[in-house]
Amino acid sequence: MFCLNINQNLIRKFENTIDTLNPDKSRIPINILGYGEISLVFEFQDNPSIAYKRLPIFESIQQVKRHVKAYRLYNEILSRLDIPVPSYDAYWLKPHYNGPICLYCAQQKIDPNSIGNKIIHVATNEEVRIFILLILQKLAKIWFYNNQKHTRLKIGIDGQISNWSIIGYNANDPKITLKSELSYLDTSTPLFRINGVDAMEPVLFLRSAPTYLRFVLKALFLEDVVGRYYDLRLVIIDLIANFFKEQRKDIIPVIIKVVNDFLAQNPLLNVKPLSYREIKSYYDEDKQIWIIFQNARRLDRWILTKLFRKRYHFYLPGKITR
Ligand SMILES: Nc1ncnc2c1ncn2[C@@H]1O[C@H](COP(=O)(O)OP(=O)(O)O)[C@@H](O)[C@H]1O
Ligand SMILES: [Mg+2]
């Protein structure tokens, strides 16, 4: 599915003149579409039908090529499991300034109103309930596959609400029914393992962490951070815990009910029921880790840019309400 018309010239110009502190004030005008905890997603004002995700994290050509291959394969794997993904492509370059190789993962731009983190603020509780059920059905496809005895391929996924969109959702006439179809957006973090080997180099997850923290993070957390995407129960807990961050904790009990009913109806998934308490304590711990991480990155940026007058390669979002 490579039908995107990406503009390589524009990407090169953008990357070579980017203002990493304020990317939306760079020489080439962009609109920021979103960011995950560690990345920037934007569109070029001159080419607004494509969403670009910028990953300035690669140390060698071999490393970026491996990632692109994994990205393409992950998109294919999900499509084959009946989890639709937007059309996609990728382009990477070594910037003129002295910095890491930068990968741009491109995707057909999706209407922001149709993405989960927007939807849950406008949909009715019943519709959010259906939305969660639709996500669970997609997740189940992955774990029915993973749970087969002889598969060398294990697939992981980040089930967060902001990674799903509803195809054909119309903000003027919003409706979510059991017939609605979802698509999954977050494919630039390819989560799959072949014979136990991660397709995406796990250290890349840490690339945006301050250098002095990487060593510690790697020793303490890396396995857990990556491993939780391969554990259905943790993926679901993470999805629900999101509703605290999105300021919709009111609806969490409803969601826990739909999840537990679903798990009871699908005993082959072999996942124990969830409780509000464990989700709350997961959230509290996760929140602490991210706050520490974000503050450490801000300090790192300050040291690099203000003390050493060097370039900081990443974009750090402002304060995130949690
Ligand atoms: N194709 C797209 N069209 C429009 N917005 C997008 C698209 N892909 C991502 N976004 C926005 O950017 C956010 C982060 O993208 P995502 O791929 O989930 O990256 P991350 O791995 O950093 O979470 C999404 O939650 C969404 O708001
Ligand atoms: Mg995401």
Structure description:
This protein is α+β, with helices and mostly antiparallel strands. The chain has two domains: 8-108, Phosphorylase Kinase, domain 1 (2-Layer Sandwich), CATH 3.30.200; 112-307, no CATH class. Helices cover 41% and strands 16% of the residues. It is built from nine helices and ten strands. The protein has helices at 8-16, 61-80, 116-119, 125-146, 211-220, 222-227, 232-245, 252-265, 276-307, and strands spanning 30-34, 40-44, 47-58, 88-93, 101-108, 153-155, 164-166, 182-184, 192-194, 197-198. The strands form three sheets. The protein has a five-stranded antiparallel beta sheet, sandwiched between helices. A three-stranded antiparallel beta sheet has the order 6-9-10. Strands 7-8 form a two-stranded antiparallel sheet. The chain starts with 7 loop residues before the first helix and ends in a 15-residue tail after the last helix. Residues 36, 160, 162-163, 186 line the site of magnesium ion.
Please give a quick description of this structure.
By secondary structure, the protein is of the alpha+beta class. The chain is built from 9 helices and 10 strands.
Biggest sheet character: 5 strands, antiparallel
**How far apart lie the N and C ends?**
37 Å
Percent strand equals 15-25%
Strand order of the largest sheet: 1-2-3-5-4
Ions, cofactors and other bound molecules: adenosine-5'-diphosphate, magnesium ion
Note the overall shape.
Answer: globular
| Strand segment tally | 10
Can you tell me the residue ranges where pLDDT is under 50 for at least 5 consecutive residues? Answer: none
Work out the helicity level. 40-55%
